[in-house]
Amino acid sequence: MEFLVVGLNHRTSPLDVREKLTLTKSQWPQALSDMAEYGVPGVILSTCNRSEFYALEPANAQTTEQSSKLKWKGSGEDRIKQFLVDKFDVSLLDVDRFLYVHRERDCVNHLFRVASSLDSMILGEEQIIGQVREAFDIASQSENLPSSLSFLFQRALRVGRRVRRETGIGHNAMSVSKACVELAKNALGDLKGRRAMVVGAGDAGELAAQVLSRSGVDQITVTNRTYARALELARGLSGQAIPFQEFPDALKTSDIVIGCTGSPGYVLEASAVRTAMAARPDRPLFLLDIAVPRDIDPEAGKIENVFLHDVDDLESVSEASRVEKAEEARSAEDVVNKESELFLDWWRTLEVLPTVINLRHKADQIREKELNKTLKRLNGKLSAEEIGSIDSMTQAIVNKLLHEPTLFLKNRHSSTELDLARELFGLSSPLPQEPISRDHVN
């Protein structure tokens, strides 16, 4: 079994491609179920900056019954890509060049870097580890998650926490919300006396509203499709809430608008922005769209005195922080690399153990059978002490004969070599699809 991830992120693809492969949290369970039908059950990690699909490379052979149930056959990479084509209704030609594929060590190392925020647009940001945890939890609830991937994600979360605990990468880290405020300051100057509106009261909206509140804005307005949630957030910030359908009209009195609803399409059209600006032509309007897919029509950015930024513009703000934390980042990379090797050593031992156990079990069965046949022919001519000596001798012969094959399997244990060993020694039972308890190895 080989770990596998197919994905894209802010480094490999533009926003207009990423938003085509984005899933909301409510869509994850069905997507996980659909992915399992392609023979690659796993974990989906979908954020504003990445969409990643983790699975195990399928076994080379499927039973006739298993094959008939799969929507796609072939390698794990092929199956995941076909799932993406069918699920998101995209052409593989349009997205394939933006996708990365990591296997085994590269996959493990990549996930550990993601959980440690080393692969984030904003180095050291703390939201990603919670997003990895949420992706893992939802996949666990799907009942399709292979325990191998469960082990991998549990270890990734521990590595992410260790990196934050033992390095300074998370100290005074810039968050997405802080980057939003920095962009607004670059466009508008001092934010004191400004009026801000947050469109969307989910996690991202709440964080953005809190940072804006601390930045000195004069008034914060919150709107959300569920008005009660907007009211709850606004009260906690001494702000005001307005019904969702009224927020385009509130543009006339707003200086800063942050869109973060997670809606599948635009919630703010360029026409609404144009209408609002006609009533306030001399006052600049700063629009920041941190939603993926985007909340704000890109055409709005072409309107006079409107400053529109999307989530990809946050990277320029975070670059100074990345340079400042270069030393902490190197320390974090060291932790991740060591943890990757430790996990893979443990995992490979776990993977090869069933074959070693089966080999020794078969050899011992042969030894006992031949020993019993010999003792039966001798018909009681040996004493108990002599029988014990012969039993010990045969055990020693088996142990010596299996010593070199066992070392070979433990030190060189690719899937091909494991299959060859099972065929060579006639070990007919298949390699388990789930790893056995970690208690067998330390």
Provide a descriptive summary of the structure in words.
The chain has 442 residues and is of the alpha/beta class. It folds into three domains: 3-173, Glutamyl-tRNA reductase, N-terminal domain (Beta Polymerase, domain 2, 2-Layer Sandwich); 176-315, NAD(P)-binding Rossmann-like Domain (Rossmann fold), CATH 3.40.50.720; 350-440, no CATH class. The protein has 17 helices and ten strands. A six-stranded parallel β-sheet has the order 7-6-5-8-9-10, covered by helices on one side. It has a four-stranded antiparallel β-sheet with strand order 2-3-1-4, sandwiched between helices. Helix 11 links the parallel strand 6 and strand 7 (240-243). Helix 9 (176-188) crosses helix 14 and helix 15 (326-378) packs antiparallel against helix 16 (384-411). It starts with a strand and ends in an 18-residue tail after the last helix. 38% of the residues are buried. Mean pLDDT is 87; it is low at 60-68 and 429-442.
